[in-house]
Amino acid sequence: MCRCCSRVAGDRRGIVCCRSERSVGDGQRTRPSPLPGETGNTVQVSVDAKQLPDGSFQGRFTLVNHPADGSRPGVVQGYVSCMVVIGNTANITGVSTSGFVPFFGDTTGQGMALTIVDGGDSGPDLFSLEAGFAPVPHPIFPCQPAHSPPVVAEGGNFVVRS
User: Fold this and answer.
1) Among 24, 55, 84, 124, which is least packed, fewest CB within 10 Å?
2) Integer Cα distance of 40 and 27 in angstroms
3) Over the stretch 119-149, which tens digit does the pLDDT of each residue have?
4) What is the distance of C-alpha 11 from the center of its chain?
């Protein structure tokens, strides 16, 4: 069930909300993980973000990457530090406050980028992820788009409003 943020009437700041988990693949049909080298994995994304009247950002994200082989999943949780909404697309960046990803370790303090495309009632929702720790450490700049191929989200519903 998606719980969307409210906004003040006339406020034109962007809002992206979704409390339900988004998944890529269901164990029987798989889609590539948006992270390089992880084909067959299932990725769940939960994000709730908005821009406040003072221009600051509020929100949280959770990413869970379930390996296709059933080994320990990678989990990253953090806060939203920047968001840009253009039409039905949101670029969201943030910083991990906790998490562990196999082969990379503790993700605390690492930058993350998420790009979400709200397909509305007529098309699929899409998302892309970029982690500042993978495949090699690199910076994540405020409000940058995620530089990975977009994947179709199955289940749940992303809502992007500007």
Assistant:
1) 55
2) 8
3) 888 888 888 889 999 888 999 999 999 988 8
4) 24
Of the candidates 55, 39, 45, the one whose C-alpha atom is nearest the C-alpha of residue 146 is 45
Longest dimension (CA), the chain: 49
Closest CA to 94 of 137, 135, 132, 53: 132
Sort residue 26 into left (φ over 0), alpha (ψ -120 to 50) or beta. Answer: alpha
Q: What is the Cα–Cα distance from 147 to 123, expressed in whole angstroms? A: 22
Angle CA 29–30–32, to nearest 5: 160
* Rounded Cα–Cα distance for residues 97 and 94 (Å): 9
Q: How far apart are CA 66 and CA 41, in angstroms?
A: 6
Residue, of 133 and 19, whose pLDDT is higher: 133
CA geometry: angle at 12 spanning 131 and 81, to 5°?
25
Q: Tell me, what amino acid is at 32?
A: P
Check: pTM over 0.90? Answer yes or no: no
